[in-house]
Amino acid sequence: VWGIELYAYADNETVVKIPEGIESIDEYVFGNPIESNTSIQKVIMPNTIRYVDERALTYCEALKEVEFSSNISTLQVSFEGCKSLNEIYIPEGIEYIECVKRERTLSTIHVGKNLISVMENAFGFLGDCLDYNDEQMFEDSFQQDTIDVLLTNPAYEIVDGFMVNKIHKTTLFVVDSFVKPEMRIPDGIEVIGPQTFNEGIFSSNYEKGLFVKKVVVPASVKKVCNYAFTECQYLTDVIFEGNSNAIEFGD
Q: b/e for 47-83, b at 16 or more Cβ within 10 A?
C-alpha cells in the first residue's frame, strides 16, 4: 500500500539518513524489545516517506533527534525505550495525531498549527499507560498531558469547554472538566472535528455521571466530520441554528 518500504537496518552509524524514495518504515526497524539500538542518535526521513509504523522508532537508547518527513499526514508513533530523547518537532503538514507515546524524558513536543484531529490521550506518558490501578487518574492525566502540549502553540486554545484550532476554526475535543448535559459549539467554529464528542474515551466522566445529552451547533459551522459523535449513547438532541442545506455531515 505504501510502496517502497524500509523493513530492516543493520549498521552502527550515529546519524541515519533514510534514502530518498523510501515511502514507509516498518516496525522495529532500528531496535526492538529483545535488542535495543545503542548507536543511533539522529534519524532523518526524506519527504518521500508517507507512513511510519507506530513501533518504527522504539528501543533506540541513544536517540536524541528525529527529522520527520513533511509528507506524513497522520502520526501514530511510540518512543518506548528512547530515554535519551528530550524534544521533538512535529511537522506542520501533520493534520491527524492518534498518539505520541513517550518516556518521561521526552518533556518537550512542538506541534504544528494545522492539526484538525487529535485523540484526547495523544501525548500520554508510557509509565501512565501501564498503570491501570487508578483508572480515573489514568484517563484524566492523559487528557491533561495533551492539553499541555497543544497550548504551547498559540493556534490552540480552550473556548467554552472545547479545545479548538483557532486557525482552522475546528473543535478537537471536549475538555473533561467542562463536560455537561447541554453544550454549545463556540460561535465562529466552522468544523466539528472527528474526536470532538467521542464519549468512548470519557471513562472518568462516566464515573461522575457526566454525559452530553444536547448539543447546540451555531450557524457558523459548515461541516461535521466523520465520527464526531462516536459512542454518545446519551445524546438525544443536536440542534443546528443555521440553514440545513449549508452544512455537510460525515458519518
A: ebbbbbbbbbbbbbbbbebbebbebbeebbbbbbbbb
Phi, psi of 203, rounded to the nearest 5 degrees: -60, -35
Say how many residues make up the chain: 251
**pLDDT in tens for each of the 251 residues of the chain?**
568 999 999 999 999 999 999 999 999 999 999 999 999 999 999 999 999 999 999 999 999 999 999 999 999 999 999 999 999 999 999 999 999 999 999 999 999 999 999 998 899 898 765 444 444 444 457 789 999 999 999 999 999 999 999 999 999 999 988 999 999 999 999 999 998 997 755 455 656 667 899 999 999 999 999 999 988 889 999 999 999 888 999 87
Of 167, 162, 223, the C-alpha closest to 196 is: 162
Task: Report the amino acid identity of residue 19.
Answer: P
Q: How far apart are CA 237 and CA 250, in angstroms?
A: 17
